[in-house]
Amino acid sequence: MDKNLLFKGLWAVILGGSSGFGYAAAEKLAKHGMNIAVLYRENKAADKALREKLAQIAKANSTTILPFNINALDQTGRESFIKEFAAIAPKNSVKLLLHSIARGNLKPLTIKNNPEDEAYNTLSVDDIQMTTYAMSTSLLDWTRSLLNADLFHSDGRIIGLTSEGAHKYWESYAAVSIAKASLESLAKYMAVEFSTYGLKTNVIQAGVTETASLKMIPGSEKLLEMGIKRNPLGRMTKPDDVAGVIYLLCTDESFWINGSIIHVDGGEHCR
Questions:
Q1: What is the extent of the structural domain holding 186?
Q2: How many CA atoms lie within 13 A of 54 on its CB side?
Q3: What is the pLDDT of residue 106?
Q4: Among residues 14, 7, 10, which one has the least CA distance to residue 139?
Q5: What's residue 38's pLDDT?
Q6: CA-CA distance, 115 to 225, in Å (whole number)?
Q7: Which candidate among 63, 90, 159, 238 keeps its CA 20 to 30 Å from the CA of 10?
Q8: What are the backbone dihedrals phi and psi of residue 262, each rounded to the nearest 5 degrees, phi first?
Q9: How far apart are CA 257 and CA 7, in angstroms?
Q10: Quick check: helix, strand or coil at residue 133?
Q11: How many Cα atoms within 13 Å fall on the side-chain side of residue 232?
Q12: What is the pLDDT of residues 142-163, one digit of tens each?
């Protein structure tokens, strides 16, 4: 089969596809014939620029890419998307649900000897709950919604994105770390319980990657520096590296991979 027609007639739903891993995945999958619904939140200027880029990718690969500038974490927004999308995409055509939402709080747990700062700039329980829903448990709502609408393919894939910060200390990363650890646990249970629908759920742990989200983390310059030093291959991970593995996980040959955390980092995690 022509590699450009590998996913012809199939769809991906990408949550958080305006940049970074989500955008790179959209570009990669479109090259192999997959149609894509890209969900994101951007201002008017950024939305216009993104729509133009996505239209160019779609045209170059003779695929359909639908941009949805909506809040993927809002129930009304999710229900509205499902209704609109179901009128376009055939039933049982969603091969991939990719969760690439990067939205959370980057605050410390405490600020010593500064009560005023601590009151406004430390992590609250609400911050943790919001971050965990955004970067973890919202995946469950989206999976159920697509299932209830009979949109998932009988050999569908669900992919989440975690990070090394789920397992070690990064400055002001507590809420995201909790969310990523939650995602890893959730994916394990989804891998078992949603297997009855033919779905395979996996999580990718990318290496340190220079994305807009990473740059928001305090001390990200040090993370980038250490990422290069630790990596056996001598460079940082790129979004395209991760997109390549997302593509591989959508192929027929990957159907037996389920419930795994896959390191996509050139061996960075070994050091």
A1: 3-270
A2: 26
A3: 86
A4: 14
A5: 98
A6: 33
A7: 238
A8: -105, 120
A9: 19
A10: helix
A11: 8
A12: 999 999 999 999 999 999 999 9
Number of domains composing the chain = 1
Give me the pLDDT at residue 88, please: 97
- What is each CA distance from 18 to 50, 67, 180, 196, 267, in whole angstroms? 7, 9, 20, 32, 27
Nearest to 187 by CA among 226, 150, 225, 143: 143
Answer whether 143's CB lies under 8 Å from 194's CB.
yes
Distance CA 61, CA 172 (A): 41
**Structure-token pair, residue 210:** 């220079």
Whether the Cβ atoms of residue 4 and residue 31 lie closer than 8 Å to each other: yes
CB-count burial class (<10 Å; 0-12, 13-18, 19+) for 127: middle
Which residue type does 75 have?
Q
pLDDT above 90: residue 5? no
Residue 265 near residue 207 (C-beta atoms within 8 A) = yes
C-alpha span between 94 and 156 (Å, rounded): 7
Region at 119 (left for phi over 0; alpha for psi -120 to 50; beta for the rest): alpha
Q: Tokens for 138?
A: 């919202």
Convert the pLDDT of each residue in 81-97 to its tens digit.
999 999 999 999 999 99
Q: What's at 208, amino acid-wise? A: V
What's the whole-model pTM score?
0.92
pLDDT band at 36 (very low <50, low <70, confident <90, very high): very high
Rounded-to-integer distance, Cα 65 and Cα 44, Å: 19
Cα gap 19→160, rounded to integer Å: 16
pLDDT value of position 113: 66
The CATH number linked to 162 is: 3.40.50.720
CA 251 distance to own-chain centroid: 18
